[in-house]
């Protein structure tokens, strides 16, 4: 009897320990936040560098748990590891589509990009869920761009297929954080995307005399040869803006110099005033 009691007690202690662990893990907290629809979205404008006019915006997810703001760089990898990323993507999408009505009233040509992960890209159900939601929200696929990382194209065959399908439906596809991965010119040609977003690590070296800068004109040339759109990330200063303006090719820019990510209401005002 005592032996059995001890075993039961041990099992109970283990269960309590597991429950506590679960309560504390970031993944479990995120699952809860998803259930309660606690994730929100902010919007950062993207400008045409040459004409200094806003063209579109990127949606960025935000999570405040109690009083703690948990940055996406922390929780997105957790979501990817713990099978929650598809729910995160769909909750961002729902938010964006709900906000889109107001943006489109301010400017009916307004476009927005969302970030998607590898798991979304190669999931055939994602493309259908996307189209269904767009139809319900009365938003055209041309108005919703998708940013994917080089990493998410590692499964090349599946990625190429998925990109073809999504582009055929009208979505623009951008390779995010370009230059931080392994993409070569040939590789980019095969992927058949609409554009690249040059990673902010390149922008940050401008004006510092770093050799990394010397690669930037080559990336821009390559993109031009491949007929790809170019967006430069992380433009914080006029010096950085001037550098890219000086490359004499159409380039879009995004960064604090143009505007930090803002709420949907603030974005709507911006669209009304400037777009
Ligand atoms: P990202 O897609 O490369 O997004 C750009 C990040 O740079 C954002 O950080 C943005 O706030 C920040 N940023 C913008 N302008 C500047 C600037 O001038 N200087 C500097 N230093 N930073 C700037 P954020 O919002 O913290 O997002 C971090 C990353 O988390 C994103 O990088 C993206 O990889 C991921 N992420 C964000 N939202 C989502 C989402 O809805 N879904 C997925 N799958 N990933 C997301
Ligand atoms: Ca992005
Ligand atoms: Ca990026
Ligand atoms: Ca990034």
* Strand neighbour order, sheet with most strands: 1-2-4-5-6-7-8-9
Low-pLDDT residue spans: none
Distance between the termini: 77 Å
Radius of gyration: 22 Å
Number of strands: 9
The biggest beta sheet is recorded as: 8 strands, mixed, barrel
Question: Rough shape?
Answer: globular
Q: What average pLDDT do the residues reach?
A: 91
What's the helix count? 12
- Secondary structural class: alpha/beta
Bin the helical content: 40-55%
What's the arrangement of secondary structure elements?
Blueprint: H1 2-24, H2 26-35, E1 40-48, E2 53-65, E3 68-70, H3 72-81, H4 85-106, E4 112-115, H5 118-121, H6 124-137, E5 144-149, H7 156-168, E6 173-178, H8 185-191, E7 195-198, H9 200-204, H10 216-225, E8 229-232, H11 238-245, E9 252-253, H12 264-274
Parallel strand pairs: 2-4, 4-5, 5-6, 6-7, 7-8, 8-9
Antiparallel strand pairs: 1-2, 1-9, 2-3
Bound molecules: ligand C2E and calcium ion (CA) (3 copies).
Protein name: cyclic-guanylate-specific phosphodiesterase
GO molecular function: cyclic-guanylate-specific phosphodiesterase activity
Domain EAL: 23-275
């Amino acid at each position: 009897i005592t032996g059995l009691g001890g075993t039961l007690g041990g099992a109970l202690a283990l269960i309590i320990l597991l429950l506590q662990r679960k309560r504390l893990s970031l993944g479990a907290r995120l699952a809860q936040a998803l259930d309660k629809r606690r994730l929100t979205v902010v919007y950062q404008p993207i400008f045409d560098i040459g004409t200094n006019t806003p063209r579109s915006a990127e949606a960025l997810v935000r999570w405040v748990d109690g009083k703690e703001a948990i940055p996406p760089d922390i929780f997105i990898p957790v979501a990817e590891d713990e099978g929650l990323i598809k729910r995160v993507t769909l909750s961002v999408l729902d938010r964006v589509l709900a906000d889109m009505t107001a943006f489109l009233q301010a400017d009916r040509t307004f476009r927005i990009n969302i970030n998607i992960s590898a798991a979304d890209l190669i999931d055939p159900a994602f493309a259908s869920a996307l189209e269904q939601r767009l139809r319900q929200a009365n938003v055209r696929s041309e108005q919703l761009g998708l940013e994917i990382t080089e990493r998410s194209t590692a499964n090349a065959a599946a990625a190429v297929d998925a990109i073809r399908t999504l582009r055929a439906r009208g979505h623009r596809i951008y390779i995010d954080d370009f230059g931080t991965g392994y993409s070569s010119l040939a590789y980019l040609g095969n992927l058949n995307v609409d554009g690249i977003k040059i990673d902010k690590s390149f922008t940050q070296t401008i004006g510092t005399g770093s050799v990394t800068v010397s690669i930037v004109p080559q990336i821009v040339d390559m993109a031009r040869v491949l007929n790809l759109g170019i967006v430069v990330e992380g433009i914080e200063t006029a010096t950085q803006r001037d550098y890219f303006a000086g490359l004499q090719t159409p380039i879009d820019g995004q960064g604090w110099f143009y505007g930090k990510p803002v709420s949907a209401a603030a974005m709507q005002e911006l669209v009304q005033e400037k777009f």
